[in-house]
Give the backbone structure.
Amino acid sequence: MEATNFIKQSLQFQKTLFENSFNALILAQDQTEKLVSSYLDQLPWVNDEGKKALQTSVEMAKKARSDFKNAVDDGYRKFEELLEEK
């Protein structure tokens, strides 16, 4: 029983660490997106097609980021369910 509690606490610590790190990553990526977008708006040779391509890339990255987060959350949920069964 004590081992299970230790595992649950360790899992919660890892989950919290992941959440905090992931949120910091989101902040950094969002800030970089704003910076690049602002920079591109000031360049006269970057046309709308180039900006649209960049926006498409940003949206793909956000979807991949969201999919990754969902997969990790699902893994934590399954592991927690496994611990509850014992």
